[in-house]
Automatic annotation (TrEMBL):
Pfam family, one: DUF454
Protein name as catalogued: Inner membrane protein
Entry GO terms, CC: plasma membrane
Transmembrane portions of the chain: 6-36, 95-113
Alphabetized InterPro entries for the sequence: DUF454
Subcellular location: Cell inner membrane
Membrane association type: Multi-pass membrane protein
Broad class of the protein's primary localization: membrane
Keyword tags: Cell inner membrane, Cell membrane, Membrane, Transmembrane, Transmembrane helix
Length: 124
């Protein structure tokens, strides 16, 4: 079960690289958590992947994301919720989406940004 959910999450995360409204990072983090429980080999493969691994490693080690990931994530959250709120008709659903947006966006904005390598204390 863990490996199936992990595999689906990797596929959705990779598709999210090309599709602007599908988020990549949450799916990769979910895949990492699933593979951690289901397959150490897949977990290691995902962490060592040259394109996907750094996002996961930043989160697992430092609980942060890069400035680029945060900027893209913020834009995609705003875009996807804006489209959803515009498309739905019932007012109660628009209000629910707006509430979920505010909670999600505030949580997302509180995620720390990884400082550039030059700012690390061992470089001074």
């Amino acid at each position: 079960m863990w490996n199936t959910v992990g595999t689906i999450s990797v596929v959705l995360g990779v598709v999210g690289i090309a599709l602007p409204l599908l988020p990549t990072t949450p799916f990769l983090l979910l895949a990492s958590a699933c593979f951690f429980r289901g397959s150490p080999a897949f977990h290691q493969w995902l962490q060592s992947h040259p394109k996907l691994g750094p996002i996961i490693t930043d989160w697992e080690q430092d609980r942060c994301v890069t400035k680029t990931v945060k900027r893209r994530g913020a834009m995609l959250i705003v875009a996807s919720f804006s489209i959803s709120i515009f498309v739905v008709k019932p007012l109660w659903l628009k209000l629910m989406l707006l509430t979920v947006f505010v909670v999600t966006f505030v949580f997302f904005l509180r995620i720390p940004v990884k400082p550039p390598v030059a700012e690390h204390h061992e470089n001074h």
